[in-house]
Amino acid sequence: AQSVTQPDIHITVSEGASLELRCNYSYGATPYLFWYVQSPGQGLQLLLKYFSGDTLVQGIKGFEAEFKRSQSSFNLRKPSVHWSDAAEYFCAVGPLGKTSYDKVIFGPGTSLSVIP
Amino acid sequence: DTAVSQTPKYLVTQMGNDKSIKCEQNLGHDTMYWYKQDSKKFLKIMFSYNNKELIINETVPNRFSPKSPDKAHLNLHINSLELGDSAVYFCASSQGLTPGDEQFFGPGTRLTVL
Questions:
Q1: Which residues on A lie below 8 Å from B40 (Cβ)?
Q2: How far is CA B18 from CA A43, A62, B85, in A?
Q3: What pLDDT shows up at residue A109?
C-alpha cells in the first residue's frame, strides 16, 4: 500500500535561512509526487509536482523539490525563507497512470514557523 | 472570483443534529472531492465525484451522504452528528480523472460538534 511520511512534525527557521522539508514515500513504482502548502485558515495550494523527467522540479513561491528514486524521497527546498512562508506543508503521492478511482494520499504535514 | 467556495466557513452544532456543507467550483472542472482534516492536520479523502458520478467512496459512516446536483456543485450532508465528526472539511476540484491532476481546494468548513 502506498504511504507518505514526513519525519519532521514542526520546523522553525529564521527568516532568510534556507529550508528543507523531508518527504519519503512507499510505493511499488514511481508515483505522482506533490507538495501542497496550507496557510493558516486557508485551503491547500499546489507548490509543485513531479511525475517524470528532470528530477529537480521548480515550483511557485521560489520552492523546488528533488526526486531521489534510490531514497524514495521528494524533499522540498527553498534557499531563503520569508516570514510569509510560515504554514503547513503537505507531501502527497498518487498512482502514476491510473484513473481517479485511485486516490492521492497526503502525508501528515510539517508545520513551518519563521522567526523574524 | 473564488475558484472553490464552501459555505458555511464555521459550523457549531449539537450532537444528534443534521447539517449540510455546500461546495461550488467555477473552474469548469469535472472532478470534485471531499476531504476531512482532523485536529492533527491529517488530511483524508472521503468522496470524489466525476461529472456527478460517485468515483471514490472511502470507509465513511453512512451518516455522511454527498450529493452532486451538477458538476459544479458537491454538497455534504451529515446526519446524527457525533463528537468525532468535529474537523475541518475541505472541498476540492480537479480538471480530469487522474491522480496527477492538480487539486484546487476550498477554504474549508470548521465543524464543531458539542
A1: 108
A2: 24, 44, 12
A3: 95
CA distance B89 to B80: 17
Contact A67, A57 (CB under 8 A): yes
pLDDT in tens, A70-92: 999 999 999 999 999 999 999 99
Q: Which of B44, B55, B90 sits opposite A101 (nearest CB)?
A: B55
Asked whether the beta carbons of A107 and A91 are under 8 A apart, the reply is: yes
Around Cβ A42, how many Cβ atoms within 10 Å?
A: 14
Q: Say whether the peptide bond before residue A7 is cis (omega within 30 degrees of 0).
A: no
Residue of A4, A57, A100 to mutate when probing chain B, most B C-beta within 10 A: A100
Asked if B56 is an interface residue toward chain A (Cβ–Cβ < 8 A), one would say yes
Q: Tell me the one-letter amino acid at A60.
A: I
Listed as ranges, residues in chain A with pLDDT below 50 are none
DSSP codes of every residue in B37-97: E-TT--EEEEEEEETTEEEEE-S--TTEEEEEEETTEEEEEE-S--GGG-EEEEEEEESSS
The residue assigned the cell 492536520 is B41
